[in-house]
Amino acid sequence: MTDSIAPAGSAFSYRAFTMFWIGRIVSILSFQMLVVAVGWQLYVLTDSALDLGLLGIAQFVPMLLLTPLVGHVADRYDNRMILLVCQLAEAAAAAILALGTLMGWLDPLTIYIIMALVGAGRAFEIPTMVAIIPALVPRPVVPAATAWFASSNQIGMILGDPRIQDRDDDRDASRARGRGGGWTGKQVPSFRGMNPDVRPIVRGG
User: What is the pLDDT of residues 140-191, one digit of tens each?
Assistant: First the structure.
């Protein structure tokens, strides 16, 4: 009889889940880079912290409005096709943003619309990723695989968060000042890696 309790690491003995898990981390990393880049560009275009807040709303509202629908879609339609469409839509959005930047026609309204579409894609993508796990591993391994999926979200966010490097830089700078190698003159605040909703508010006086 098959043991109903599978070891947590056994999920990675299935190639499909392993590739799925790695792909999830890569997907989160790419989304983190997209959000930071778009936030910087929007601030360059508008010089407004309020517009950065609206950017967050543009991503959140589609996810909120589509919540009653996404579970039904994930249960009724092919999960692989849903994920494929979502990933292609997000890739197309990034390509349009890059093209608009290179050609100079990208404006704040276009950015809001594109990021709203990205938010809509993610609204369908995340529940579908959870729903597809039972198709990747045997039933006894599903709880462990689901836990590993949750960990991939955290790993991707940690690896994709540039503020971690900033904290390391700040720690090294503090050590340098403690050894008598401190700065002279006024400290210039660094915006690199800060949350795009907060970073532009901090200005050197």
Answer: 889 889 888 888 877 877 776 655 445 444 454 444 444 444 434 333 334 4
Total domains in the chain come to 1
Nearest-10 crossing angle of helices 79-103, 108-132? 160
54 in a structural domain: yes
Write down the pTM of the prediction. 0.66
Q: Is residue 55 part of a domain?
A: yes
The answer as to whether 195 is a domain residue is no
What secondary structure, in 3-state letters, does 84-147 show?
HHHHHHHHHHHHHHHHHHHHCCCCHHHHHHHHHHHHHHHHHHHHHHHHHHHHCCCHHHHHHHHH
Q: Is residue 187 part of a domain?
A: no
pLDDT in tens, 69-126: 887 887 888 888 998 999 899 889 999 999 998 888 889 999 999 999 999 988 898 8
Could you tell me the residue range of the domain that residue 43 belongs to? 13-162
Half-sphere exposure of 16 (CA within 13 A, CB side): 10
